[in-house]
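$ ./design --mode recover --in tokens.txt
reading tokens...
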């Protein structure tokens, strides 16, 4: 279960990086906050 979470988290980060490249740095900060809230 933990490994599945880490794998999906890594994939999410890769997707966010692609999104960052496409949209720019202003929007990605919001996405990072949402991701960090999920880690708590």
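writing sequence...
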């Amino acid at each position: 279960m933990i490994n599945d979470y880490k794998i999906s988290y890594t994939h999410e980060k890769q997707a966010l990086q692609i999104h960052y490249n496409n949209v720019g740095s202003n929007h990605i900060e919001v996405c990072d906050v949402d991701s960090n809230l999920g880690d708590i």
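exit 0
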